[in-house]
Amino acid sequence: MELGLVGLGKMGGNMRERIRRGGHTVIGYDRNPDIADVGSLEELVGSLSGPRVVWVMVPSGAATQSTVDELAELLSPGDLVVDGGNSRWTDDEKHAEELKAKGIGFVDCGVSGGVWGLENGYALMYGGSAEDVAKVQPVFDALKPEGKFGSVHAGKVGAGHFAKMVHNGIEYAMMQSFAEGWELLESADSVTDVREVFRSWQEGTVIRSWLLDLAVKALDSDEHLEALRGYAADSGEGRWTVEAAIDNAVPLPAITASLFARFSSRQDDSPQMKMIAALRNQFGGHAVTAADKVGEMGADAPGADVTPPTGG
Amino acid sequence: MELGLVGLGKMGGNMRERIRRGGHTVIGYDRNPDIADVGSLEELVGSLSGPRVVWVMVPSGAATQSTVDELAELLSPGDLVVDGGNSRWTDDEKHAEELKAKGIGFVDCGVSGGVWGLENGYALMYGGSAEDVAKVQPVFDALKPEGKFGSVHAGKVGAGHFAKMVHNGIEYAMMQSFAEGWELLESADSVTDVREVFRSWQEGTVIRSWLLDLAVKALDSDEHLEALRGYAADSGEGRWTVEAAIDNAVPLPAITASLFARFSSRQDDSPQMKMIAALRNQFGGHAVTAADKVGEMGADAPGADVTPPTGG
Amino acid sequence: MELGLVGLGKMGGNMRERIRRGGHTVIGYDRNPDIADVGSLEELVGSLSGPRVVWVMVPSGAATQSTVDELAELLSPGDLVVDGGNSRWTDDEKHAEELKAKGIGFVDCGVSGGVWGLENGYALMYGGSAEDVAKVQPVFDALKPEGKFGSVHAGKVGAGHFAKMVHNGIEYAMMQSFAEGWELLESADSVTDVREVFRSWQEGTVIRSWLLDLAVKALDSDEHLEALRGYAADSGEGRWTVEAAIDNAVPLPAITASLFARFSSRQDDSPQMKMIAALRNQFGGHAVTAADKVGEMGADAPGADVTPPTGG
Amino acid sequence: MELGLVGLGKMGGNMRERIRRGGHTVIGYDRNPDIADVGSLEELVGSLSGPRVVWVMVPSGAATQSTVDELAELLSPGDLVVDGGNSRWTDDEKHAEELKAKGIGFVDCGVSGGVWGLENGYALMYGGSAEDVAKVQPVFDALKPEGKFGSVHAGKVGAGHFAKMVHNGIEYAMMQSFAEGWELLESADSVTDVREVFRSWQEGTVIRSWLLDLAVKALDSDEHLEALRGYAADSGEGRWTVEAAIDNAVPLPAITASLFARFSSRQDDSPQMKMIAALRNQFGGHAVTAADKVGEMGADAPGADVTPPTGG
């Protein structure tokens, strides 16, 4: 089939390539003329024969919104827009409404795969009517991994991004699981080769997984991760996962802990721990600033909230 | 080689079978005469030619301790004891000392594999001196999975059980990750087929893993898990993981949250939430007992800590 | 001064009384004619001499919005609206804009005090311009407690509700702190009188507080809280606190844990723990449904992820 | 009455003074001769007339153990030892057994009060038999605050330290509650005077408490706590609280979060977050080391696990 693809960055560029390998025609547009097939969105739409399918692969929020707005003007009734970016699921219903008023269909699609997607395929989760999904199914089939799994029609409009968001929430907590375990092993006197422990876990264990394989790869290039700072960005999807849980009164302790750990990792100093230090100083006369002089549990360990004397 | 194996339950029985398939001689003892090869521990020791290797596969704590005590009396200098049970790593040093006083070696070995181990092999993490480990290496090689991975000499005495303990801590948090994600998906209006979303994740995603495969199997037999109670036991190893983290001042929020979720799952009613209800009643006059009449956020939602009036 | 008060429920009715005791004139309107001073919002506005101050004390969300909409039509330039309900701080800016277009001022005010406010005074946190705040200051002074503290001009429009929201977030976590401590004490064999421990803490300790006093009162009427279910509603403000933290990348582990504990308390059974049970069953053959037969750590304790045999 | 007091440090010295003000005779011993009344433990015991009561106020663990050991040799049947230090409750039973073998009684006593205790009194929680407690009651009465509350016979031997430990656990979580709220308020654009918000909360609110008063004092000396590092020591009691909870299968999410926040505050860099960064790099090609160049959500925000292109 024929597909218009808007956004040819790290993800979109590779997706164009994989769809073409699947035997389809892709006309790609990007603001960067060096990588674009056409010079404008108008030209993109004009070069597709109807009914058209245009896949939007641009940053969520303002960029996606303006692209949808433009497409609503340029496309014709019976055409279809797919939002394959990382939009918040709450945006999907709005985009669907806006396009429906013009007779244009809408499918949202969460895409996972990163830099591995071109060769291994992209995991796809999409939402929309069966009719709309059918129009883009050949492209889904080209993008997905070759095996039995890797793509799903998750439900109504919004379900694709919701499912992808939850995937990322799970991913956060799984990464945190391995990270906590790694730090604990590294802290143990008896364990002399943490990397080999991780390596061994790749077979026969309950925790074998792709993330474990990646952890081993990372440790192979830097056994104690000394070249890295313990600093982790977070994508909007982790935040949205927690917000969706709050909306639905679902307790999400492990995923939320993982998100908060990332927040903390980005603070040079922790305001809340300054307050803890200040309070300890107020009631206990605990030394608070000479932090460089204290040991494991602080200057007043053990049992220091009422600091015991040096007696006996 | 020749191995004495003490404890032929669900794990030990299968391990005997797998070691024998590996071409070794196993003489097994169990209190249950129907499954034992010999009638007593004395007989077991007597039927092995020295230097002997005896693998202990009995419940951690008192049963393991008494078995080690007996073996310390029965074995000879140069013999070796392997503790393959789920002992706490802090027991290993004690057992090693006790046996060393008699000239007997000691290796601790954490074993993962459950009911799948007989066919797929057992993941093994062991600790001890290189010399002691070498004596039992052929058995490790018979038990482990066939691939490149699945067994590791993790470090000194205690390192095997420590590594296995951390494996289980990671496992707790990974299970919790999927469980939270599943509950959130089930709570979403737009997602109409949660099981198919999970199934699709088995390829191309960041979270593909053996636990995900198992989740799909579970959902295939009971799509909404309606036959189960939300009740989860915990093994000692989850608890020990958190205690080890506390000893080493390692923050472990996701693993600990997973442990606490299991604690809560086993309470018919939550004492701490009774106290929350009591306090709300004290300061706000909130209804506390007519819980069956309240909705999502309770009778006084929204914004109920200072209950707004019915005005306007 | 003269005040119009919309909403005469549990909070508004008592506030009317306290403002009147402060020597001011209050004309109250409520949909319930039995408690209202006037029959309609129009009548309320008509009976105030300008410049008018109208305090809105109705449920947040739709009721507050419609009241603000009506007042925007009824009031005149130079008048002032105070929103004293539990509105989300993000609504305040919208309400201020809407009223400003008509020349009407706006102040948001978070109110704490519950059933104790009439006698002890209400803690007030308000946001808005100095000019607008000055217009309602006499009413704030009448409502607040008699001591030096209890009211604050927290900042711009929205700051009052934001501060009140954070107050409630802190409150959640403080309640949870006492609740956790109480459950732990109740679980200890050695502690024979938990209530007296709580009572004793009311002097000389670091944790003495009004919430502790309330806990003692609650225990005095029901020593083990046996008449209560461990079920806790949550107001919107706890949820909004966590959402605000996510917006600002502030880690909030204790407050969020308190919110999630309330979510869990309202579930008859936990979906996520069903998934944990299902996974345990898949990999370990753990019994999952015969939960009534298991003890503290479950049937397979200790160390049950690889269930040890009964051997030795 | 007459009391021997071992340990005259920051706590013990002030306690000696307060007990003397209560009209009792205190003979104090400390390793530091400048502050001691007698030159040795033998001299201390010799100068007391029987039946003797000796209060031990030295660091928990080895120092307390050796003092108890020495007193077991020096004292006579019918004498009594009080451990007023921050011993772990699990030590109490052992000390009681050891002394009982010599006919010597034992009472454990948790003491709260810090630098404020001399003037305001010390909160006391003690455990032991009614007979033993009666022997030291006059000293308890002298030490406690003057009001109705502040001391409690919590239960059997160990109950005093257990109750004090839980007090400290609650204290951790209450401090964390205020700290989280403070950081969130400081992060809000609309709130222009966080210190005044905290000050106002001291009356009329649900969260009024001594810790809040201390927070206001701290902010009065350093409005944004700029002179402090966000670094907090922890006493053994916070750790023991979590361990006791694990022993009793009590979920303790807020208290544990507070403990972990302290652990994290003492890490120059977080090993676990290095692993998170490493994993993100592996699957997404996320920049990990150029952390100084990234903004709020990192270089790849928004929605960065599948980094969107620069398109449209």
Short note summarizing the structure:
Four copies of one chain form a homotetramer. The first copy, chain A, is an alpha/beta fold and 312 residues long. Chain A has twelve helices and seven strands.
Describe this structure in words.
The structure is a homotetramer of 312-residue chains. Chain A is of the alpha/beta class and 312 residues long. Chain A has two domains: 2-156, NAD(P)-binding Rossmann-like Domain (Rossmann fold, 3-Layer(aba) Sandwich), CATH 3.40.50.720; 164-265, Orthogonal Bundle (N-(1-d-carboxylethyl)-l-norvaline Dehydrogenase, domain 2), CATH 1.10.1040. Chain A has twelve helices and seven strands. Chain A has helices spanning 10-21, 41-47, 62-74, 89-100, 117-120, 130-143, 159-186, 194-200, 210-221, 236-247, 253-265, 271-284; strands at 2-6, 25-29, 53-56, 80-83, 105-112, 123-127, 151-155. Chain A has a seven-stranded mixed beta sheet, with helices on both faces. In chain A, strand 3 (53-56), helix 3 and strand 4 (80-83) form a beta-alpha-beta unit. Mean pLDDT of chain A is 91; it is low at 287-312. Chains A and D meet through helix 1, helix 3, helix 7, helix 9 and helix 11 of A and helix 1, helix 3, helix 7, helix 9 and helix 11 of D.
